[in-house]
Amino acid sequence: MEKYRKKIDKIDEQLTRLLDERMGLSFEIGKIKKEKNMPVYVPEREKEIFERLRTLPKETIRDEELEELFRQIIRISRLHGERGTR
Fold first, then answer.
1. How far apart are the first and last CA of the chain?
2. How far is residue 81's CA from residue 58's CA, in Å, rounded to a whole number?
3. Contact assessment for residue 53 and residue 70, using Cβ atoms and an 8 Å cutoff
4. What percent of the chain has pLDDT over 90?
5. How many separate domains does the chain show?
6. How far apart, in whole angstroms, are the C-alpha atoms of residue 80 and residue 31?
7. Residue 64 burial (CB count, 10 A)
8. Domain containing 63 — which CATH number?
9. Radius of gyration (Cα) for the chain, nearest Å?
10. pLDDT at 86 over 60
11. pLDDT score at 85
12. Angle CA(4)–CA(18)–CA(73) in degrees, nearest 5?
């Protein structure tokens, strides 16, 4: 069991780095949107993301579970984008 926990810890570290990078990009996109007077929230973009996620190869996670995770990631990313617009 310890072997698996160590693997999970490594994955958590990788996920944290990637999510941190994603939030930084969301902040930068928010700044660009502010300069161009564009809305932060674009429902069509979210729809594209969910459609693309469904096409990705997966072995154990179901589409509904992945969408639930990404709904939270996108919600938090949007908050970072709004910070870029202030």
1. 47
2. 29
3. yes
4. 86
5. 1
6. 10
7. 9
8. 1.20.59.10
9. 15
10. no
11. 53
12. 95
Range of the domain at 39: 2-84
Token duo for residue 58:
């997966």
pTM here is 0.85
Q: How many residues in total does the chain contain?
A: 86
Confidence of residue 83 (pLDDT cuts 50, 70, 90): confident
* Residue closest to 74 by CA, chosen among 30, 12, 13, 22: 22
Residues 26-61 have pLDDT tens digits of 999 999 999 999 998 999 999 999 999 999 999 999
Contact 24, 75 (CB under 8 A): no
| Assigned token pair, 49 | 């993301």
